[in-house]
Amino acid sequence: MCLSLVITLYNEAENVKPLLEKIRATLQVCDYEIILVDDGSTDKTVDEVKKYADEHVQLIILNKNYGQTHAMAAGIDAAKGEYVVTLDGDLQNDPADIPMMLEKLTSEGWDVVAGVRKKRQDDMIVRKLPSLVANFLIRTLTDVHLHDYGCTLKVFRKQIAKNLGLYGQLHRFIPVLAKLQGAKITEVDVKHHARLHGKSKYGLGRTFNVASDILLMLFMQKYLQRPIHLFGTTGLFTFLIGFGINIYLLVLKILGEDIWGRPLLLAGVIFTIGGIQLITIGILAEILIRTYYESQNKKPYLIREIFTRNEKDS
Question: Which CATH entry fits the domain spanning 3-223: 2.40.128.120, 3.90.550.10, 3.30.420.10, 3.20.20.220?
């Protein structure tokens, strides 16, 4: 298997047939599979996939709506191809860009080729402006310099895609997760089309989640494998401040000063206890990290059904 296309679907019934037709027209000379992951759709998406599926299509039906990140993880886990492509199921990404991106990846030795929607066909206030802000923050704070983190269309080498570790809502941070593995990443301009059918699942509310996710990315970049360096260093610094305050107050006490009731006394106690707590958290985080790496490989999603053309009753 050369190529695995991973496409997440949520209430995209009207887009299924034209999406499959575009992919088939584009990838006629390549050995490929199409992994469609239904993320708890409440319309006729599943029925439409089963109706128009051919031997290249595998449909993974999740137990409920887990969100795009977990749906994407389910598709990548099932992928068998040497190269993995992710794209949206709303026809805004163009499958015709895939051969060009794959050629760039293989001929130039990249691990990830990410798409950049140069002429983005979206609403300025609801989607473009929040995206520009989010892209600037992610690019600046993570030091991974891409222009369009929100573009789902990307091509990966299999070993990178399989080890992304997608949880929560981290799909927009895929380039950062790939960089944590040492991946070589580049970007190319790709086409972007206006949505013709269905409704966008994106809103301003999701933009506010980016800030907390950026903090997680910064932690993963710098301290995931050594959390004691973050909590321990901060805790030691805090403890020393508290210790210094307490020594100062002790000297005043020896000199006959009345220190009871002073705000500085309370500050010394808080800094000392807070420093001890941070150091303790760092040690516990180190233990948790070791448990994380050594524990069983559990998935954050449940699969209700896997459908293929030759196995309709699976």
Answer: 3.90.550.10
Q: pLDDT digits over 88-146, tens only?
A: 998 889 999 999 999 999 999 999 999 998 877 665 565 667 677 777 888 888 888 89
Annotate 81-118 with b (16+ C-beta within 10 A) or e (fewer). bebbbbbbbbbbbbbebbeebbebbeeeebbbbbbbbe
Q: Phi first, then psi: give them for residue 157, nearest 5 degrees.
A: -75, 145
The answer to whether 196 and 92 are in contact (CB under 8 A) is no
Per the DSSP assignment, residues forming a β-bridge with 189 are 116
Q: How far apart are CA 11 and CA 90, in angstroms?
A: 9
Fill in the amino acid letter for 159.
Answer: Q
CA torsion, ordered 90, 74, 111, 116, to nearest 10 deg = 20
Nearest to 166 by CA among 297, 73, 74: 73
Tens digit of each residue's pLDDT (9 = 90 or more) over 44-79: 999 999 999 999 999 999 999 998 999 999 999 999
For 200-209, how does the pLDDT look when each residue is reduced to its tens digit (9 = 90+)? 655 445 556 6
